[in-house]
Write a structure and sequence with these properties.
Length: about 180
């Protein structure tokens, strides 16, 4: 359910949602909004997950309803366990095959948000100091502008050096920077 809901959020949009990914269109559209594509596989997997959660509650109650070595609820326990195994194994396969392996990353949307993310100025701390970096972050956030553009205006660092310092791929590799 968690993965399904994350996929639904990441796919939300195209304009007002997160729009980080685009799930494959498996149906002609939404029943109430022409042109919208529903994330049908993640929605179906979320429903199957809800059923399994309900089955778990039934299994728990049935399991504690026995007396000594006898439990008249063993059939409902078996039924719900087998149903849950079937639901989750089929759902996981469909989610993998029809949603996870087929979605495309909306790199354009990700890049716009990343360029404005104040976390980037952390990379400038050793070069320009914490206070100046904080000033740049606040100004960029307030003006809804990319960090690099504000840093270029507010420092003497050339654009090429800023691009190297603020490169998200380099910043996410980990390790000690040289």
């Amino acid at each position: 359910m968690k993965i399904s809901n994350d996929l639904r959020w990441m796919n939300s949009g195209p304009l007002a949602g997160l729009g980080e990914i685009e799930l494959e269109a498996l149906q002609p559209g939404s029943s109430i909004m022409p042109g919208k594509v529903n994330p049908v596989i993640p929605e179906a997997v979320a429903m199957a997950s809800a059923q399994v959660i309900g089955n778990d509650t039934t299994i728990t109650i049935a399991g504690q309803s026995g007396n000594f070595q006898l439990n008249v609820m063993l059939p409902v326990i078996a039924f719900n366990i087998l149903q849950s195994i079937s639901l989750m194994s089929n759902s996981a396969k469909r989610l993998a095959d029809k949603a996870i392996t087929t979605f495309s990353v909306r790199q354009d949307n990700l890049n716009v948000a990343l360029a404005k993310n104040p976390i980037l100025v952390t990379a400038l701390n050793p070069v320009i100091g914490y206070l100046k970096a904080a000033e740049i972050a606040k100004k960029a956030y307030k003006q809804q502008r990319p960090i690099i553009d504000v840093a270029e205006e507010e420092t003497d660092l050339p654009r090429a050096e800023l691009e190297a310092l603020l490169d998200p791929n380099k910043l996410t590799k980990g390790g000690i920077a040289n």
